């Protein structure tokens, strides 16, 4: 099913950044355009920061960390997170409209992971941890060097966090980084992706107008220039980079962060496998395979490789294909749509390039494969299904970040595990079987940070999310994520 209604919208986002407690334009006065990817129209502008603006933001965050009580005053932090939560809730509907316009995400998704779900726990869960977490613990009296000493382990904030965010789920990722970094007592410079700046500048405005967060604790810097992200990575005043984005950028951040021994937390790409075991109920399970098209496939944890038993391969393709013909795609403001546009012409062309490569390398194009003729405006790609895919093909190895599913045959459970793990990424996965026990046994063998069994969904602010291998280092969310924003200190003194 497709739709062609006009997603034209009149949202006007916040142009100003937040630097050192002030809502401000770039020093140069420059702005850049924010595009609606569903219409290709300019929604409005946002401040275009230069290195000078980023420098002011870093200096402010450093000063706020070193010279205010933010890092030690837990009660203040808790109150501020509650104020920000209330402010965001008051603007929930404006945020919803704005996210659909600038991200091109289906409005349906804003009732879930694009907005309502992170708004329900992204700040609240870390705020609750402020009271529940063990900030100090005692070790037994030690006797090193023959000296009896009491010993205490302290958890302290890392310092200044550079938070770098991608465009696909910008509000979710921003709120999760903010919640954990602030609850743990850090200060921050937040840099949204140039494609989706307004949700971040709105948060900046709300922080300035509606919370007691001291000046400099949170700075929001928007720029059309990716170098501003790199400036955060190379600046010695920044202690930790909390990055979500592509593996290529993650690698560069590690390299550029090395001279200052930057603490790094990297949430990167994926090419996750969904394994359908031979005893699974195909009729009940496979029609949902087109879920891979949700938000144009622009999700790092999408299960983009479908592994099915060779003995039932053609049967599987016949069940999967109709789902691809009926995906609701088009105008993201239409509540029946699950797939909107790609974020930009560049991303659309990148996806189309991968599709061409798949055909070139001998995969069978079953559905889609091009730009939809009935959607001349907007960066759309048809829901696309490939069969007869070998795991060595480019479309099976690389992250496409588009509405594209590749279906790969396997011989037995061992072969399925081998294929699932035969990829540089290790972000997520899924296993479906008539026996939960058998599915869990296979899931345990998948080298990935999250695995859903029989359709289980793991997301939540309490669930550590992240990747093995080239999918990243560290975890977003959960207590594992919380601790990444903390340093560890041991105090000791003579024991009586
Ligand atoms: P990207 O790496 O191009 O950009 C991400 C952010 O990094 C942007 O804010 C960008 O301005 C900034 N950036 C670019 N170059 C930089 C540099 N040299 N130094 C510092 N910052 C720099 O990624 P994208 O295209 O915006 O997002 C899509 C990618 O993000 C996909 O690969 C996807 O899998 C990944 N992603 C991962 C997760 C996860 O949790 N693992 C979640 C969402 C997206």
Overview of the structural elements:
The chain has 496 residues and is of the alpha/beta class. It has two domains: 2-268 and 472-491, Aldehyde Dehydrogenase, Chain A, domain 1, CATH 3.40.605; 273-460, Aldehyde Dehydrogenase, Chain A, domain 2 (3-Layer(aba) Sandwich). Helix content is 35%, strand content 21%. It is built from 17 helices and 22 strands. The protein has helices at 51-67, 74-90, 92-103, 107-110, 116-121, 124-132, 170-183, 198-210, 227-234, 247-257, 282-285, 313-325, 345-360, 394-397, 413-421, 436-443, 478-484, and strands at residues 17-19, 22-24, 31-36, 41-47, 136-142, 149-157, 160-164, 187-191, 218-220, 240-244, 263-267, 273-276, 305-309, 364-367, 384-387, 404-410, 425-426, 429-432, 452-453, 468-469, 472-473, 486-494. The strands form six sheets. It has a seven-stranded mixed β-sheet, sandwiched between helices. The protein is globular. Bound molecules: nicotinamide-adenine-dinucleotide (NAD). Nicotinamide-adenine-dinucleotide binds at residues 164-169, 191, 193-194, 226, 229-230, 233, 244-246, 249, 252-253, 267-270, 300, 399, 401, 427, 467, 472, 476.
